Amino acid sequence: MSRIPTRAWVGFLLLGGLGALSLLMGRLFPEVLASSCPLGSDLTRPDRTVCELAFGGLWISLAIGLAAGGLSTGLGLAVAAVARLSGGVLERWVMRLADAFFALPDVLVVMVLQLAGQSLVDAGGGAGLGPFGLMVVSLALVGWAGPARMFRNRLSTLEGQEFVAASRALGATRFHVLRVHLWPALLPFVLAVFLSRLPAAILAESTVSFFGIARMEPMSLGRYLGTSYAALIYEGGTRIVIPAWALLMLLVLGASLSSQALGTSVRKG
């Protein structure tokens, strides 16, 4: 892989800065924001400041994005590896299944999964999943198909290189080729795909939570915006909505910049 582009570094710094801020302000020292927030208290929750709610939501949104992005990337990688190791008819059917899942509307399916999961939880089921776990699983179930298709195509391209053909000619098995020759070359691509899942997962969760379908507690940025947008009709209501909206946009921008730049670098390398 060629050197990491400047645009990717900007994205990494943005993500890292937001992650550090959310950890420090949202989890470790929330009392600082409670006592010194320049934006004052939330109109609908007078016992909490706008800064507490916004940075607390940033932490939850980032954690959901990282967990769901990692899980969907892992699922996609496992499916692609099984498909390539199997080959033939099984590979074609697995990829057709992935294409069928990829064609589904992500947000709509997540909404259905959330409602079904919450019904199970209310009925005493749900396998112990809370709102956070339920959201991560829902996002991963709709997000694995794209990575699976990308990983399968990347593996197919890498397998066409001469050193892979030489290894096979010497008697190497498919699993040996995957583990020894393909995996090291695939790692940068795995990171790029993982980063590309971040903004998709964060936006899907925010949309579902904004419409009040997900029961995220503590609140994510999407749920905070969904429960606070009515404040815009009051004087000074923008001070409540704008910070959470800006943090959400910066989070998505950081993930998008790093994934696009890193993905371009990997393809050129």
TrEMBL record:
<keyword id="KW-0812">Transmembrane</keyword>
<dbReference type="InterPro" id="IPR000515">
    <property type="entry name" value="MetI-like"/>
</dbReference>
<dbReference type="Pfam" id="PF00528">
    <property type="entry name" value="BPD_transp_1"/>
</dbReference>
<dbReference type="GO" id="GO:0055085">
    <property type="term" value="P:transmembrane transport"/>
</dbReference>
<feature type="transmembrane region" description="Helical">
    <location>
        <begin position="182"/>
        <end position="202"/>
    </location>
</feature>
<dbReference type="InterPro" id="IPR035906">
    <property type="entry name" value="MetI-like_sf"/>
</dbReference>
<feature type="transmembrane region" description="Helical">
    <location>
        <begin position="242"/>
        <end position="263"/>
    </location>
</feature>
<feature type="transmembrane region" description="Helical">
    <location>
        <begin position="97"/>
        <end position="116"/>
    </location>
</feature>
<feature type="transmembrane region" description="Helical">
    <location>
        <begin position="58"/>
        <end position="85"/>
    </location>
</feature>
<dbReference type="InterPro" id="IPR050366">
    <property type="entry name" value="BP-dependent_transpt_permease"/>
</dbReference>
<comment type="similarity">
    <text>Belongs to the binding-protein-dependent transport system permease family.</text>
</comment>
<keyword id="KW-0472">Membrane</keyword>
<feature type="transmembrane region" description="Helical">
    <location>
        <begin position="128"/>
        <end position="146"/>
    </location>
</feature>
<keyword id="KW-0813">Transport</keyword>
<keyword id="KW-1133">Transmembrane helix</keyword>
<feature type="domain" description="ABC transmembrane type-1">
    <location>
        <begin position="58"/>
        <end position="259"/>
    </location>
</feature>
<dbReference type="GO" id="GO:0005886">
    <property type="term" value="C:plasma membrane"/>
</dbReference>
<protein>
    <submittedName>
        <fullName>OppC-like oligopeptide permease</fullName>
    </submittedName>
</protein>
<keyword id="KW-1003">Cell membrane</keyword>
